[in-house]
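FIELD: query
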Amino acid sequence: MNRNSIQLQNLTKVFRHNVAVHNLSLKVEVGKVYGLVGDNGAGKTTTIKMMLGLLHPTQGMIEVLGYDPWRDGPNLKRLVGYVSEKREMYGWMSVEEILWFNAQFYETWDERYADEICRKMELPKIAKVKQLSRGMRAKLALLLAMGHRPELLILDEPSSGLDAIVRREILENIISVIQTEGRTVFFSSHLLDEVERIADHVGIISRGQLLKDAPLEVLKEKSRRIRVVWNGNMPTTERLHNVRLMQGAGKEEAYYTDDFREDLLDQFKAYQPKCLEVETLSLEEIFVETIRAAKESQWR
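FIELD: result
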């Protein structure tokens, strides 16, 4: 049995002379939560659209729930719940009407389950979609994606532009689906604290290239900030291996590594520093340093 809900191999998408996604490969195991993060224009939405069969890849292989999205789109869409960043819906319909309309496309639509989520989200069934606030529309979009109990939930910036309260509600509903039903979730977001809270696995993408792809725990275990207060002579950066200078202020410096090992500290200890500290990093800090390193390497 295939234990991967999603498998992408050497995926590339070119729009005329613009390479939106380049040679991207990743796997998402069944029941896992994969968070794809990247800077603006990194290729997150393009990747998701190819996974859904909305865009045809220039080259590469895509398999989602055992289907080729381009060839087997109708079969795949029955098994997937999708929330796009734009969250476009028929404004003239009421909440109740759009729920009924959406249910007609899915044999597995669970009316009782959808009503339960609707009540939990405090969505007014009689209100027109166009009368809903941005936050309410975001919650409705998530409900429409979840109502047929999909095997895979794909979310493109589900909390974009929303206030903290609504973001928390949406996140709690996603967490509920994960915990109670063990569904696979693939989502992109620029809100790194959200990704850090619910993702099992993280991919960092920039300029269409996947820079990191690892379980969140491994990513955080390997990434460290090393703070040093030098006692005398300071080594040149060429003498320090597998680290990169983050900050420097006189004899106080901070270095970043994405391959931390205890013996890495020996090269610092050789200079007998006054102080040597190792600090863990948040996902946001790891993301910033990864993107910064990628941009610096382009100019070398």
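FIELD: remark
The longest strand covers residues 4-15.
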